[in-house]
Amino acid sequence: MMPQSWRLINIDRKEATGSWGNLQDFFYYSSHDSLNVVDYLTPLVLHSSYKSDIISLEESFQRYAQTNRNMASTGILPARLPIELVLRIVEHLRDDYLPLLCLSLTCTFFWDITGQARYHSLTSAVNKHSWAGDRIILVGDSARSLPPSILSDNDVEELRLNGRSDTLAEALYDAARDFKKPSQLTEPTQVGPLYDARVKAQPRLRKTLWEFYRRDIRFRRWIFFHSPDFKLRSEQNPGARWMVRNLSKREYVTKASSRDLASLIYYLIGRSDDGTSWPGDGWLTRGPWAGDRIDLTFVSIHREEHGNESDWTNVTARVKQELRRVTDSEDHELYLSE
Which domain of life is it from (predicted)? Predict the structure, then answer.
């Protein structure tokens, strides 16, 4: 095997790791690396307890009507707002969790009506730095070509690849030296509202949020949390099976254990030219998903999201057969069983 240096690159975020050195050094021993690709590509998922706080819009409207009757004589704000305007306000705040939460806490009416938006907004907030669903590629410094169509003309311009090297593959590898380090290595895991810079700058607001936190157990999970609280962990979900998904091609690979899951991902997204051989029969560095949008989840979660999977293709058998063939070695054996 000719030694190469490798970089894991997020094309969408312009983030990349430093050089990982020889492929075999991290392919079989990836768990020691400071970047755990499994964590990066697994979206954080809110506990089921968060859904217990959500009521349907129909029930919200019923409560709204009751609120109007109870509040009409008082002139309190919700009684004077058309429901269409209320929903427009909630939708407008959906992309920024802090003001949406503050609106939710103003009264029971707003707490009820913002339930679904609050759930989706918090999901986006805790996944702010996640690579799940982004275009990911593991590029070797001997790469001379990229899979067709993974970079648009706009990508080439934004990444400043023109004229940088003889090929786009070499240019991308070289440009990645200047990319940001992955945000998950540099950003704190404390992502709740109490750690928001806007809250820290307003002691009165911070104090108010703490008061709500202490007042009612319903509010606590929405006000104080850390991103690791929402990690998918197979040890906490006995029998859960992993699924690596290609969101671009709508394909997936399933695996019963997280063992060697990172190696499977490296095989799927690795890209270099035939300067990289392997102890087995073939080349490891023609990843069929290199540069595609990928993520990881549990099979059960995927089925909740997509039902019968009729428009998804299960490529597990094909991928594992090929991976076994190219990594066949007396010294190493990947754990690929179902």
Answer: Eukaryota
Please list, in sequence order, all residues whose beta carbon lies within 8 angstroms of the beta carbon of residue 255, skipping any fewer than 6 positions away: 241, 242, 243, 244, 261, 264, 316, 336, 338
The model's pTM is 0.82
User: Is there a contact between 9 and 21 (Cβ–Cβ < 8 Å)?
Assistant: no
Is-contact 325 286, C-beta < 8 A? Answer: no
Distances (CA, A) of 174 to 15, 18, 137, 160: 13, 11, 14, 11
Q: What is the CA radius of gyration of the chain?
A: 24
Q: Which of 174, 172, 185, 177 is nearest to 136 (CA)?
A: 172
Contact 196, 190 (CB under 8 A): no
Q: Of all helices (H) and strands (E), which one includes residue 218?
A: helix 217-223
140, β-bridge pairs: 6
Q: Are residues 255 and 119 in the same domain?
A: no
pLDDT digits over 123-156, tens only?
999 898 899 999 999 988 888 888 888 999 999 9
List the domain range (segments joined by +) for residue 153. Answer: 6-44+132-174+235-326
- Residue 283 belongs to some domain of the structure: yes
- With residues binned 3-state (H G I as helix, E B as strand, rest as coil), the percentages for the chain, rounded to 5, are 45, 10, 45
Count of all residues that appear for the chain in the document: 338
User: Residue 186, class by beta-carbon neighbours within 10 Å (0-12 exposed, 13-18 middle, 19+ buried)?
Assistant: exposed
Residue that is written with structure tokens 């990928």 in the block: 294
Please give the structure tokens belonging to residue 66. 């009751």
Give the bridge partners for 313, in sequence order: 251
